[in-house]
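During the second half of the funding period, the structural biology subgroup turned its attention to how the target accommodates small molecules. The most pressing case was alpha-L-sorbopyranose, which had performed well in the primary screen but for which no bound structure existed. We therefore specified the complex as follows and requested a full 3D prediction, including the ligand pose.
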Amino acid sequence: MSNYRIGLIGLGGMAHSHIRWIAEEGRYEVVAVSDVNEGALAEKGDELRIAPDRRYADFKQLIGDPDIDAVVSVTPNNVHAAIIRACLEAGKPFLAEKPFTRVFAEAAPLLALYEARPVRGMIGFSYRYTPAFRYARELVRAGKLGAVRSFSIQYLQGWGSALNDTPYLWRFNKDITGTGTLGDLGSHMIDLARFLFGEFKELSAQMRTLIPERRDPATGRMVPIEVDDFVSFQGVMSGDEAGVFQSSRNAVGSGNQHEVTIYGDAGTLHASTLDPERVVWTREEAPGRLARAVVEVPAYCKATQYGDFLSLLDGDAPDGLPGFMDGYRNQEVLDAVIRASGERRTVELQARPE
Ligand code: SOE
């Protein structure tokens, strides 16, 4: 089995995670990097031992490099659409970080390109590889919880060391990020719901900016915040499962707390990134007698994001891999949340084939 030669675009914080995941998986070699920041190019080039002629300030040159088999894109949101477009036009397989784009208007034109040339693409909905969420999906699909009537999903982060003390950074800059916690964390919640239950039928929502201004560490000045740092929405899935969602960047005390609780006729299941290798399963152990058990996730339920990317590159995309259409559908739901919140109404989403 050959190794794949990877071009990595974006050398900021999340690049460290991707470089680690790539190294852990094996069968990959990062042979080129791109970033608009010359310093990052030099620093990461050395770290990855990459020749100077494979360090590109312009990501389009990296994507066009014939010696690169696939692209990994880990950039701020404002270049997501341009990178996916360039990969589609070049026929270059890619793994691109979420959210798919800043706003749906950037996603819409990519669909026609993809339909004309369905390049192998994967979107970085990494929580599909949390073992507890994979096992939850297995149990739902096997009917072990009975008919699912409702569920709740939350994704809470407590940024900053003190209460509401997070400094201003690019993730609060509307021009760069599009939306705040909705696109950053809400996209993961939406993908988890789609991973577990299929498509959304309708939703209503509220997006809030709880902390109206934050201090820019570069200038020391307070900056008005234009993006959401809290979002809640409720929706109905294609199988009539009723879902409640919330996400906050101000949930002080929460680390990286993404979790789901599923309520079915035959039992309740809780799965969380706080305990990723186990689930909490409440069911009847005898008529009228409930038992709450902590269950280890079986090994067959485990997979990795870069293991699935390998399968995609080998031409054998496994079930459940978050592909181009998962990114596009995710952006449709993000757009529905924005419209439902702004127009204060329930928004229906077009029925989609599963
Ligand atoms: C935000 O803090 C963030 O880095 C997200 O952007 C990632 O998608 C998530 O996995 C961890 O938190």
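Two results from this model are relevant to the next phase. The radius of gyration is 21 Å. Residues 126, 157, 184, 256 surround alpha-L-sorbopyranose (CB under 6 Å).
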